[in-house]
Amino acid sequence: MHFSLLSLFLFFALAAAVPAALAPRDHTPQVKESVAAPNGWTRLGRAPSDRSIRLRIALFQQDFAGLETQLYEISDPEHRRYGAHMSKEDVEKYVAPHPASLALVDEWLVAHGVHESSLGRSPAKDWEYYSWQHTDGDILVRATSYSLPQYLHDTIELIQPTTIFARGKGMAPILYPEDNEPLTPATPLANSHIDASCATRITLSCIMRLYNAVGYKPRATKKNAIGITGFLEQYANQRDLTSFYRQQLPAAVHSTFNTVSVYGGKNNQSLWVAGEEANLDTQFGFGVAYPTPGTFWSTPGSPGSFDPDAHTVVDTNEPYLDWLDYILDSKHIPQTISTSYGDDEQTVPFTYASRVCKRFAELGCRGVSLLFASGDAGVGDGDPDPVTQQCFTNDGKNTKRFIPQFPSSCPYVTSVGGTMSIPEVSANFSGGGFSNYFSRPAYQNKAVGQYLRKLPHGTYEGLFNRAGRGLPDVSAQARKFQIFWRGGPISIGGTSAATPVVAGIVALLNDARLAAGRPPLGFLNPLIYKRGAHAFNDVVAGNNPGCGTPGFNATKDWDPGKRILYANR
Ligand SMILES: *[C@@H]1O[C@H](CO)[C@@H](O)[C@H](O)[C@H]1NC(C)=O
Ligand SMILES: *[C@@H]1O[C@H](CO)[C@@H](O)[C@H](O)[C@H]1NC(C)=O
Ligand SMILES: *[C@@H]1O[C@H](CO)[C@@H](O)[C@H](O)[C@H]1NC(C)=O
């Protein structure tokens, strides 16, 4: 729905002045949520009163606990219901709000002059805004708290964008400009079927060999599909993809993918606006899974910088809920989806993170495997400037703390870290650690518990949440990927690169299952932790520095920087 800020202010003036006339309820606004602005943000001034902002009101779901039970049963390879994924309608029965809650919120909105016609519904049916500027120049219109009448607090879970300072960064900014010469001819490594060049330059053929996928011929291409999300005006360029295929996968040179616009997301095919992230994700994701059909979703949202005085701009920098609404409303969803975007967990309000995470669980119930990049700054946020870096808590106490990434920290998605070299070691930038928001899911108890017991007593005490969800879940090569961008070859990396690779492999595994008449893998983590030991190569060297520490070590068995996927089925 679209409110203008002006009408919001009016509405609170009204709410304060005439509550008794509206209903017997007490309409006095009470603080619903209050956050501290993350480091690096400076308040500029009152937001222009005629800026529009599209707000989303999330009502509490009737039975998320019930849905979670379903998710864990159908994702547990030892449960008799393994693979019994749910339909759209079945999922909606659990997450729909109580009809009485809907009526209450409608009544509240109508009482304040917001009518049905300006409301959009998701399929399941006094805040003060300021402009804020980040040290890197980005400006957002946000509030540090908002209020609602007390009687709505147990009905409305959250309203966003209000307190969210996240910007949904792409994670592929690591460029290796020194590598831009032509690829050298392949010479196999001694005692290996892998080319020596793969130790320093990653091509599709390196990935297929490293992860045992050479020669697999997809057969379920009428049923199976792979999807790549795109945000922040990242456009996936078809001409660059064709050049990439000409160089690395000639059989695919005539293949295309489907770009889907989510709520008006654009698709500019000019080479000059091709996105590095979008190109990396589509070239390696679709390349590994070829000829599995590929979908690229373009969801609107500016990369952060907009003119706070341009009154007509609608602030849509809310990275995930739009896409989730769109995708959950679809009958058929690609079985494997890769996302290489994320934010420092603490810049995302807990209520928002928790709601987005629950929606990912809905996708898991529908049989979708979700892969998210674990981040490119080790245990930190990668900012060397002690003033703006986020290695401090956001609660006003400024305590030093490691920084996990969201959505990777959500326990209902699979978090993908990065490795390098052959044999593989953990890449030193690979995001990994423990969520401060989400507690450790049962499927991780054994693996993560074991790791924590081995940590020397007192290690990084106070810097991480020992009870938190550990990440990543898997890793893959993440440096020096050879792709095409804006007409020429470049070398690029990050967990952004590892994520579509893992998604491509998972899509091939799903192909094998569908071709054999079985359901797709769906939510992967319970399977990975129960049966993974046989399918994965354990990465036992490397660490992930950040926040002025060496970070965590890769060790035997689970650790916050290991485990790579081998596709031997
Ligand atoms: C696509 O981007 C190019 C380069 O910035 C620009 O000139 C062109 O107008 C854009 N096309 C559309 C349809 O927006
Ligand atoms: C990570 O490794 C690269 C080269 O492998 C090195 O240049 C860089 O300084 C390392 N970063 C940290 C934080 O140790
Ligand atoms: C990582 O390994 C080094 C060298 O063995 C050791 O000194 C350090 O304590 C380990 N760090 C953690 C967090 O386990």
Automatic annotation (TrEMBL):
Enzyme class (EC, first level): hydrolase
Entry-linked InterPro entries: Peptidase_S8/S53_dom_sf, Peptidase_S8_Ser-AS, S53_propep, Sedolisin_dom, Tripeptidyl-peptidase_I
Reported function: Secreted tripeptidyl-peptidase which degrades proteins at acidic pHs and is involved in virulence.
Location relative to the cell: Secreted, Extracellular space
Domain spans labelled Peptidase S53: 201-569
Keyword Signal: yes
CDD domains membership: Peptidases_S53, Pro-peptidase_S53
GO molecular function: metal ion binding; serine-type endopeptidase activity; tripeptidyl-peptidase activity
Signal peptide span: 1-17
Keywords recorded for this protein, A-Z: Calcium, Glycoprotein, Hydrolase, Metal-binding, Protease, Secreted, Serine protease, Signal, Virulence, Zymogen
EC number(s) from the headed UniProt entry: 3.4.14.10
Cofactor(s) needed for function: Ca(2+)
SMART domains recorded: Pro-kuma_activ
Catalyzed reactions per annotation: Release of an N-terminal tripeptide from a polypeptide
Protein name in UniProt: tripeptidyl-peptidase II
